[in-house]
Amino acid sequence: MNFETVELTPEQEAFVAEARTFLEDNWHPSPEMAAMISLEHDRLPADFAELLAERGWIRPQSPVEQGGAGLGNVEARLLTELYLQHGVPQTNGSDLLSSTIEKYASERVRSEALADIQRGTKTVCLGYSEPDSGSDMAAARIAAVQDGDTWVINGSKMWTTYAHQSDYVFLLARTGPIEEKHRTLTVFLVPLDTPGIEVQAIWAMGDVRTNLVFYTDVQISDEYRLGPVNEGWRVVSEPLAVEHGIEDDLDALAPINGSMGSQFSHTLELAVETAVEWAVTTPGRDGRPQIEDPIVRAKLAEALLELEVSRNAPGETGKVVAAEALIRQSDALTDLAGPAGILDEGVPGSSRRGLLSWSRLHAPGTAIYGGTSEIYRNNIARGALGLPRPY
Amino acid sequence: MSTIELRWNDYSLSEEQEDVRSMLQDFFTRNSPSTLVREAEPLGFDADLWQRMDKSGLVSLAMGEPYGGQGGGLVELVLAAVEVGRTLAPVPFIEHTVATRLLGSLWGDAAEERLSDAVTGELVIAFAPSAAQRGRTLVPGGAIARAVVALDGDDLVLLRRDTPPEQATNQAHAPVAWWDATDEETTREVLASGEAAHTAWNTALAEWKVATAASLSGLAAGALQLARTFATERIAFGSPIAKFQAVSHQLVDIHMAVESMRHLALKAAWFTENEPAARPELPSMALAHASRATTKAVADAVHLHGGLGITLEADVSLYYQRAAVWGQLAGGTRADIETISAAIDRIAARHTPSEEIR
Lengths: 391, 358
Description:
Structural class of chain B: alpha+beta
Shape of chain A: globular
Strand order of the largest sheet of chain A: 1-4-5-8
Number of strands of chain A: 8
Radius of gyration of chain A: 22 Å
Order of helices and strands of chain A: HHHHHHEEEEEEEEHHHHHH
CATH architecture of the largest domain in chain A: Up-down Bundle
Mean pLDDT of chain A: 93
Distance between the termini of chain B: 30 Å
Oligomer: heterodimer
Shape of chain B: globular
Largest sheet of chain B: 4 strands, mixed
CATH class of the largest domain in chain A: Mainly Alpha
Structural class of chain A: alpha+beta
CATH class of the largest domain in chain B: Mainly Alpha
Low-confidence stretches of chain A: none
Strand content of chain A: 5-15%
Number of helices of chain B: 12
């Protein structure tokens, strides 16, 4: 066990200074991107992505020959903190997918895409859910029919976040009778500029853009197939395990509540800090700041407690606990701040950046995307508790 | 631009600590079955188990070596507390360890002689986690202790009696008792006064909270084990009830609570031992979370047993009866929330009040 402050070596201090200068000189986000509170919903602008990739700083812990910078845990974590401080999205690196793609890539994918996917200048979005299937991922209907060396794809995919900003979609498609469910699925890496693909925006609460993607007679070469025909369920299971936070070789700096759980905790931390700022700067009944009111203090303490709890929920439990904490406390803090909590950014009397209002709108999605809390509970029931498969 | 403070976030136990953990699990599983827990009622103390703990070096597991202990720290205290909670072991392990550690740190060279009968457990010393009001304080382990460390006004005192006071009977069958510094059977030795008294007491209180939180996490884990077993064996509508998501998801909720409680208690133990000033709210956070999550967990565990769960015959009812008491003895979550709210001021210091504020 160890929670000590990491003593930075002179080399690490120099690395921070270098990275900070680099970001100050080169990161000039658009006003829209600068206004975004959540950094989870946009890719990097292409020119800046190229600059980062030249340094291997999109997937910094990967070896240099795989597009990374071969950085150690400490340097990589420092870089992550700097990205957070400067508001740099960290959505280009497909750590989730790049090892799977490398494992199954054909010669063509290898030469056309692999290196750029690994360095983060080409990006991949996930084509799992459909209009008629979400949690039941293996019920996918979108059809891929083989015609010689070509596959013809017809159907649609829902919640393909980043489809409008990505180069490829990691597509789970049906390649046999649907009755055989898990045994007739195949994965393809489909270039999104292929004719017949139409991306339609869907706007969700909290300024989140995702997409509905239509595939009409989309023809792709068999070289874009990842893994054997009809073994797609096995191919998607590998990145899913990573996404669900059940990889077990955590480094000693990583949050234990997983990549999604730690994002949600970070959002909750911003909400708590915003509520504290509101309490310091807002007068209460007798003109004294709200923060001196014991009831206000108690409610802020409750939020701080739940934030800490969310950071101590390990692995798969972390996503569920952090999402539910964010939902509960976004409501509680909105209520605490009275009207400030529901006013939009810029309106007189709103919380800073309208963050409390935004947090409440953003929160419900966290218990859904990346796997619903119910799916997670099913997984935990079987994995951690060894319970029988549910009905 | 703010500087970056990185901390390690490593909850892993050393190989040695893992060995201690599995030894403790084995010891309490073998030596504290539910039959023994029942036989120890209503006082809630099994002298024979306490002696066996001494023979195995467990009474002094987390006491310092200079005065004859095994030299374990807060992590070892937490690991043992988890197992005490999991098996509802009727022994005053936490309060006795916390009180003895406090005296050991205060008495220096004299500690070895003065604590020789505490190290073996022959003399039970309890720790009072609530400051005395007009000399009176409710003490966990107080009904079997002949000595109590308490905060009485601005004095840290060692109270002693030849025989323990009468048990304050309670729903947990815990050996809790009122101690009264003004009682004529009680002697009162001042250990420290003023700031020194408060500092020493606060340190011990933090240790007591961390250990009690850990113990509650163990208690919830014990109740979970019973509920899990029941749900996989009980057949209704032609199948084990564990196949129904309404049931399995409740079990998962208990599991998630156990995991977050245990990790938070470990983290709080590390900070309390190594950098108490960095996160002084962590012990209160660990206890507040454990108190609430454990009472919820045992309620769910009872519920999952159906009507059987509320009967005295069902082991899960032993857990339900004990879950609420431990978290309440330092004032309950009301007091913890007040302590945690002090941490709000660290964040508040980054902001300036507006001009409207007088």
